[in-house]
Amino acid sequence: MKKTYYIKDLAHGRSGDKGDRSNICMFARNPEDYEFLKQELTAERVKAYFGDMVKGDVIRYEVESLKGFNFVMDKALGGGATMSIRLDNLGKTMYTALLRMKLEREE
Known about the structure:
- This is Beta-lactamase.
- This protein has helices spanning about 30-40, 45-50, 95-100, and strands at about 1-5, 10-20, 20-30, 60-65, 70-75, 100-105.
- The protein is globular and about 45 Å long.
- A four-stranded antiparallel sheet has the order 2-3-5-4. Strands 1-6 form a two-stranded antiparallel ribbon.
- The protein is an alpha+beta fold.
- It has one domain (about 1-105): 2-Layer Sandwich (Alpha-Beta Plaits), CATH 3.30.70.
- The N and C termini lie close together (about 5 Å).
């Protein structure tokens, strides 16, 4: 049977920015969740989740020792702090949007 989880139930995170690039770090709450997220929380899924908001590539870096991932998203901030009209033009809270993403898990 499949169960739907919000990522916030499986991980916590942080995010930041530099120019028009945003990075989101997600850290699994436990080792089992890390293995599940490693399989399901792909760069392609993150890019699709953010849709038109992220115009460039999304690259996922795995940080095994911390049971986490760093997603680097290019062209994600409307041109950067001096160019964007977004409320969160610096990307400091983009991780909260990703925490609301849903994933299905076989139970």
